[in-house]
Design goal:
Helix content: 55-70%
Oligomer: single chain
Strand content: under 5%
Distance between the termini: 29 Å
Mean pLDDT: 88
Number of helices: 3
Structural class: mainly alpha
Number of strands: 0
Low-confidence stretches: none
């Protein structure tokens, strides 16, 4: 029986745990469930003149939420 609290781990911590404990399928499924539960949205439209600023902003949001 596994007594590890995956919910208390950040995404980064859980990913590192999975990389060092590759046989822990439960951890893998928890991580994948987290990834798939996040909404996907289009950041920019093809003809948007401010596409670079929007991409940079989206990347910054992802970087701060990953910590």
């Amino acid at each position: 029986m596994n007594n590890i609290n995956y919910a208390a781990m950040s995404d980064r911590e859980l990913k590192q745990y999975i990389l060092t404990n590759r046989s822990d399928r439960e951890a893998f499924y928890v991580y994948m469930d987290r990834r798939h539960s996040r909404p996907r949205k289009a950041t920019v439209k093809l003809d948007d003149p401010a596409w670079q600023e929007k991409i940079i902003s989206a990347i910054q949001v992802q970087l701060t939420s990953a910590n």
